[in-house]
Amino acid sequence: MKKLRFLLVVLALFLLSSPVSASLLSFYDLIDFAGSGTYQGEDYLLLNDYTFYWHDLGYLDPGIAYINDATLSIKHAGNKNFWDPSHPFKSEIWIVFGYNNPINNFLGRLGRSVDQNMNPIWRTDSFVLDNDILGKMENRDWRLRVNLLDVTPGDDYLFLGKSELAGNYSPVPEPGTLILLGSGLLGLGALGFRRRK
Ligand SMILES: [Ca+2]
Ligand SMILES: [Ca+2]
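That is the input. Now the predicted structure with calcium ion docked in place:
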């Protein structure tokens, strides 16, 4: 029976000193761009070959211990998304980077968001962030800088409708929960000890 009490105390101490294995929590950050006009019901910001913006997860409660997964979704219109060597100035290719000074992490390429008549149509592209860039978010106060860049000669324009960053994180343990759990187990251990007396 002493063994049992010993085990309970060890378990309580272990729980006191390590994070409780909590389930994942989700986060979501929306940037709804506007300011340049409205197209087919969506307010947009008009980009000219290059821009950047920040997704900031801010202060979550409970706080973030680390990010498990995240997906960036960008709603855009007007991207021709093609390269024609004989007409380089008519070409247009928008690239998405997660920027972490001084390195651009390539996230992907925006898809074609024009119809066959070259009229803009809204389209959303999603990019799963890899562990490399998640780690860099952790070093930057849970912020992600997104760079959008058209890599062809000449000016090209893009309607930026909205950007969403969604995913799951492991929360930091809450001290109150740990103390409650720990003292509860210690109490159980003490109870077992008394009953045997
Ligand atoms: Ca918008
Ligand atoms: Ca261009």
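Helices lie at 2-17, 131-138, 175-195.
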